[in-house]
């Protein structure tokens, strides 16, 4: 059987869309990442900001053209897997109605189990992608099929399990939706930036209110709220914040997370209790973050960005678990909530790029046998490995504060529209979760009911889903399990799930994070018309505000899997349980 080799790629996918990333091939064949940073810093005037946004859009267009050229080069140079479709199918075993397992041999050097949670339609989609990459024609995408990526992760030094969620789709190195646990004490155990992604701590935050759908649907209110949110929350490529962030304040944010904002009006004292890790990932070190990354972060804290990031006003459509929902302050159908999806913006992207370059140099001097160069990694306990983890934690803390600043902007917008303080509207944080992160956690060793081990859990497009009673959960969620915020595609449903003990035993305490793409951005733009998407949103009664209407087709619901299918798989497999279903009334995007 043919040996599967790496396919080189540089680019952005999913939550990685905020940085403008181009691929430049070096003489040694290793992908070099060139990032075009926004040029603004601090406060800028409207005219200057408009010019910067125009330049950023032009840069984005240039880099997308370069990305297309990189696609073509990668496809031309990609080695062909000459195995027949039947041979490839033989490596994928159906375990039950909700799980498949990838056998050793699909890719070289697998040392751990590789599994994926699916239903029958999702299974067919993954298999079509896999078998479509074989034969003389070769693969039709510059990225490896998702199942090969999941299997490649199972070959990393020290890995004890590679698990994919039902919203899986191919990504940089790791598939989006891939979880991998690495034994911290295993010889040569590694950390891989590709297992976190460029948008470090891209995540979700849900805010509840005591308002109802009827309050929003009063004449003129829905449109006014959409306009006010669009004005209050900076969006789009190159957007900048009104928050004056000094270098000293930024270092405090990077090191201490939300605690650095406690002396400001941007957070409520009780907010952090309902944020993963209390809004601060330990081990962060601002000194490990480059000056360039900090320069990019200063004007961007408190900004939404672009791509698949959003701020939505939603209403409760259905409550599946009244007791768990009540613990979250959600008590009735029609109750209004706000969901925020964003990450660490240009700062996180620059951190990832900086360390990929350092790791590239390290690997040239200390080669590792990797199936895919996008899985570039270093030993966890090496100097570079420790520095990356410290810088990654700092970028994650930046993201927590970014979502906190936007929470303040959302509270301000609601106060302006409804004429009363945010506290009077009970605008409390339900929960805030990461879905691009690597964290040290204690887990059961696979196959054991009692033996635990210290794991570095990479979650790339996957959400932590700790079960009831876990010591890291706030007291009010210990009975129901951790809330899991799952964003749908634009104009469809979103969900709140709860973590389970099954997840602790089978997925290293993880579950899905969203709908998951089924069309690439290029495919979506080719297949869908932006004006048709806008009209469809209007017919659904959704007020949409978007910075660049030409790119709205990229985020159309047709470009994504059905999020209800994804959450159904998670529920049926027991790795998380449905609690609340939400429907959009207002969507704000970059």
TrEMBL record:
GMP binds at residues 308-312, 435-436, 487-490, 494, 513-516, 589. One of its GO terms (biological process) is tRNA splicing, via endonucleolytic cleavage and ligation. Binds 2 manganese ions per subunit. It is an enzyme of class 6 (ligase). Its cofactor is Mn(2+). Residues 61-80 have a biased composition (Basic and acidic residues). This is RNA-splicing ligase RtcB homolog. The active site is at 513 (gmp-histidine intermediate). Keywords: GTP-binding, Ligase, Manganese, Metal-binding, Nucleotide-binding, tRNA processing. Ligation probably proceeds through 3 nucleotidyl transfer steps, with 2',3'-cyclic phosphate termini being hydrolyzed to 3'-P termini in a step that precedes 3'-P activation with GMP. In the first nucleotidyl transfer step, RTCB reacts with GTP to form a covalent RTCB-histidine-GMP intermediate with release of PPi; in the second step, the GMP moiety is transferred to the RNA 3'-P; in the third step, the 5'-OH from the opposite RNA strand attacks the activated 3'-P to form a 3',5'-phosphodiester bond and release GMP. Its EC number is 6.5.1.8. Belongs to the RtcB family. Catalytic subunit of the tRNA-splicing ligase complex that acts by directly joining spliced tRNA halves to mature-sized tRNAs by incorporating the precursor-derived splice junction phosphate into the mature tRNA as a canonical 3',5'-phosphodiester. May act as an RNA ligase with broad substrate specificity, and may function toward other RNAs. It catalyses: a 3'-end 2',3'-cyclophospho-ribonucleotide-RNA + a 5'-end dephospho-ribonucleoside-RNA + GTP + H2O = a ribonucleotidyl-ribonucleotide-RNA + GMP + diphosphate + H(+); a 3'-end 3'-phospho-ribonucleotide-RNA + a 5'-end dephospho-ribonucleoside-RNA + GTP = a ribonucleotidyl-ribonucleotide-RNA + GMP + diphosphate. Mn(2+) 2 binds at residues 202, 341, 435. Catalytic component of the tRNA-splicing ligase complex. One of its GO terms (molecular function) is RNA ligase (GTP) activity. It comes from the Eukaryota. One of its GO terms (cellular component) is tRNA-splicing ligase complex. Residues 58-80 are annotated as: Disordered. Mn(2+) 1 binds at residues 199, 202, 309. InterPro entries: RtcB, RtcB-like_sf, RtcB_euk. It comes from Porphyridium purpureum (Red alga).
